[in-house]
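Progress note, sequence design subtask.
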């Protein structure tokens, strides 16, 4: 329930402007796996609560004693307690709940999670609980104390528990609610499964009293011999000397943080460039007096020059593919390093150098592995189709999700594009909303390019025009089109030409067709592998005729679950536009695209 209006028992109606859920977590700790972590992954206790009786009374007001979060036990044989985690169901974390039991397959609502743990926190150290993601809204308690809330199903959040954790008998409880909601981001309608729950890793993160919470280390986009960025400490001793080291490059800079624990830097550095051909990464260390943290970072620049996209100053052509966070070879959300290695390995097998992680921030294994494998990345927030453009809290939520993914991934060389939206209507309200998001992205990350998946329109029956006004605010134009699937039959592509009002690089960010793997027929029989391959052949010929095209990410690497695809036998709630089936079997169109990418691999490289 997301009501901002709470009805008092007297029938009075008070408009309670509840603080937006997403605004109630602590500043994000980055690079958590390099810290002293304790995993809380594994089996959690779970109570399915479709009527949210664990949180609201019959007047829809929060229960005063904390409800299920209090984890009460009957005081004596007469006491009434109508829930019990110890004898409740069990769920694996990380993992969506929908794919863990048949009765939860379609479930949209609240499930309560509980995990017990002991922790001996040494004096002078601090402890946080970190969630890779929880879809969609999470309320979090430790030992009955409300830590806070988070809204948004695909970005990390953490809470400090230093003052609430005890040596033994801690109980961590979450209320996770994946009900869709008109003012949410995404809103009511998506062409992907609404996988709910604690869908990514959960860690306890122990840090010194004053620690290196965050840092940004990248090349200056405008002066590529300059290493630029900042460091942020967190704790009582904020004024410290901080050494920034990249030993393999002979970099050693000593910074002095200010009263807020912050220090900027910019200095000359000779660093080999990261690229898909040579994904060169360096061990970078940020060493304060009270804490140090390190990670592998690649250094490259990305910019545009007219219709060209430049990586390290040289034009590139993006041989891409779209990817949903659909687990390979099983049902459910992908969440592991193994899942990431499988999915990105399949993209590599396509001769791709680029992946569009649609339509929301994927798990961190994807972007870190893309760094290592040399795959460029388009990252995206789920501002998808219809959003409550004029609802203030909705914009705040979208801003926050964008800030969280930029905070998490800003040191990833592979990530070159932040996408603001997908297929949104060209209205004034939407334009204002999206321009506000570009301002967040440009202020948080001046090193990357902004894009979005826009739609085109027909000027006449053979000319497609790209002139969405939001394009004026982007560096790179993305356009989705489905000529041959939603728009005519495959050979329609042969007679189309394209125009664009922007002197900017164009990426065809979606085209495709559905096919049930193993279903065969003639090239005009829909749902056959032959039809899908036919669409790809005509599409690729058309793309070759677009002079300002600099890349494409066909829709999509693998079949994925969608509530919008009920066609029995063919779909069975799978979107079948994958080049690879839900069982990992490649379809004919996979090889059409692979061969095309092999043919053009030398383009600009
Ligand atoms: C749209 C949308 C995708 C969707 C696809 C389809 O372009 O961006 O999210 O899955 O088309 O219809 O399969």
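Output:
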């Amino acid at each position: 329930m997301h009501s901002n209006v709470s009805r008092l028992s007297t029938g009075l109606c008070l408009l309670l402007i509840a603080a937006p859920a997403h605004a109630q977590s602590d500043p994000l700790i980055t690079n958590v796996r390099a810290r002293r972590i304790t995993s809380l992954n594994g089996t959690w206790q779970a109570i399915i609560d479709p009527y949210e009786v664990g949180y609201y009374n019959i007047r829809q007001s929060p229960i005063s004693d904390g409800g299920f979060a209090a984890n009460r036990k009957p005081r004596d044989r007469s006491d009434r307690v109508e829930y019990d985690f110890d004898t409740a169901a069990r769920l694996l974390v990380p993992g969506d709940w929908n794919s863990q039991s048949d009765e939860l397959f379609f479930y949209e609502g609240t499930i309560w999670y509980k995990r017990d743990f002991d922790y001996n926190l040494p004096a002078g150290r601090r402890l946080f609980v970190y969630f890779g993601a929880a879809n969609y809204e999470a309320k979090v308690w430790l030992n009955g104390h409300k830590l806070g809330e988070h809204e948004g199903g695909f970005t990390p959040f953490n809470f400090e528990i230093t003052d609430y954790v005890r040596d033994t008998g801690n109980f961590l409880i979450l209320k996770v609610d994946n009900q869709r909601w008109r003012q949410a981001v995404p809103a009511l309608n998506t062409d992907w499964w609404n996988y709910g729950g604690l869908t990514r890793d959960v860690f306890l993160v122990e840090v010194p009293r004053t620690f290196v919470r965050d840092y940004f280390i990248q090349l200056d986009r405008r002066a590529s011999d300059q290493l630029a960025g900042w460091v942020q400490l967190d704790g009582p001793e904020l004024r410290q000397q901080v050494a920034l080291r990249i030993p393999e490059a002979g970099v050693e800079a000593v910074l002095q943080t200010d009263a807020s624990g912050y220090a900027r830097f910019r200095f000359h550095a000779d660093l080999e460039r990261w690229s898909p051909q040579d994904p060169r990464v360096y061990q970078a260390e940020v060493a304060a007096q009270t804490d140090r943290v390190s990670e592998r970072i690649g250094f490259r620049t990305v910019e545009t020059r007219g219709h060209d996209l430049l990586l390290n100053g040289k034009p590139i052509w993006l041989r891409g593919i779209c990817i949903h966070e659909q687990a390979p070879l099983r049902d459910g959300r992908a969440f592991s390093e193994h899942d990431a290695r499988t999915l990105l390995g399949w993209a590599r097998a396509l001769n791709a150098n680029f992946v569009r992680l649609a339509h929301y921030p994927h798990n961190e294994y994807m972007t870190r592995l893309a760094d290592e494998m040399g795959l460029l990345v388009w990252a995206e927030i789920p501002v998808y189709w219809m959003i409550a453009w004029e609802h203030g809290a909705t914009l705040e939520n979208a801003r926050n999700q964008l800030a969280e993914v930029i905070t998490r991934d800003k040191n990833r060389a592979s990530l070159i594009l932040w996408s603001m939206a997908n297929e949104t209507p060209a209205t004034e309200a939407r334009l204002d909303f999206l321009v506000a998001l570009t301002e967040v992205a440009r202020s948080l990350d001046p090193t990357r390019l902004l894009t979005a998946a826009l739609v085109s329109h027909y000027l006449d029956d053979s000319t497609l025009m790209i002139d969405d006004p939001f394009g004026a605010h982007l560096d790179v134009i993305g356009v989705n089109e489905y000529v041959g699937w939603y728009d005519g039959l495959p050979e329609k592509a042969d007679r189309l030409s394209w125009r664009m009002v922007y002197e900017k690089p164009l990426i065809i960010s979606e085209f495709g067709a559905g096919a049930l793997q193993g279903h065969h027929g003639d090239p005009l029989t829909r749902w056959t592998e032959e039809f899908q391959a036919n669409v790809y052949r005509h599409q690729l010929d058309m793309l070759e005729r677009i002079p300002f095209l600099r890349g494409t990410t066909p829709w999509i690497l693998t079949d994925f679950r969608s509530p919008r695809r009920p066609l029995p036998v063919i779909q069975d709630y799978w979107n079948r536009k994958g080049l690879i089936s839900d069982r990992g079997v490649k379809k004919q169109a996979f090889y059409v695209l692979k061969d095309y990418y092999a043919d053009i691999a030398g383009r600009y490289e």
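Confidence is low (pLDDT under 50) at residues 1-23. Work on this subtask will continue into the next period as scheduled.
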